[in-house]
Design brief:
By secondary structure, this protein is mainly alpha-helical. The chain has one domain (36-158). 73% of the residues lie in helices and 0% in strands. The chain is elongated. Pfam families: DUF29.
Length: 171
């Protein structure tokens, strides 16, 4: 990246504006790719915890924290610098979720029920459609809620998950 910035400076100083614009396009593409890869990492993390929740029919504080954190990070990463558009639009999540789901199955096979299932076994046990529906519902909250309100909305969704029936009850 440092070399690219040096080249950009030199292109501008030398009046090579076409080269500078081309390099800017390349840098923009690299930045977008890095953001999308980070979002995908958080998607996998989200899905692993939703898979664990579905298979084990419980919701631990740790899993809830990971789900919540993943959604909050995705919201932050997905919003472009202009604060008005997104890298991934609401209707475009399915392809990302399907790819991330396959990776989440492999990671989940190590974590679900203390590693009791191989990936192929876990794939047969898990209701992928249901996991994708829940993930989409959580992701859609990122478009309709500001940061503070999103935290509360996620907590409300926990009560809909297996083992989360008492999540929002006061003590």
């Amino acid at each position: 990246m440092t070399q690219e910035l040096t080249d950009l400076r030199n292109y501008i100083l030398e009046g090579r504006y076409d080269d500078a614009l081309s390099l800017l396009d390349e840098l923009e593409g690299m930045s977008k790719k890095a953001i999308l890869q980070t979002i995908e990492s958080f998607l996998i993390r989200l899905l692993v915890h939703l898979i664990k929740n579905q298979v084990e029919q419980r919701l631990t504080n740790s899993w809830a924290a990971s789900i919540r954190d993943s959604i909050l990070k995705i919201q932050s990463l997905n919003l472009k610098e202009n604060q008005t558009s997104y890298y991934i639009k609401p209707e475009k999540w399915d392809s990302y979720l399907e790819t991330a789901f396959e990776d989440a199955i492999f990671t989940g096979s190590v974590e679900v029920a203390n590693g009791a299932y191989k990936p192929a076994q876990l794939m047969r046990i898990v209701d992928q459609t249901q996991i994708i529906i829940i993930a989409n519902k959580l992701l859609n909250l990122t478009y309709s809620h500001a940061k503070k309100a999103l935290r509360d909305a996620i907590s409300e969704e926990f009560s809909q998950l297996p083992g989360g029936e008492d999540w929002n009850l006061s003590v």
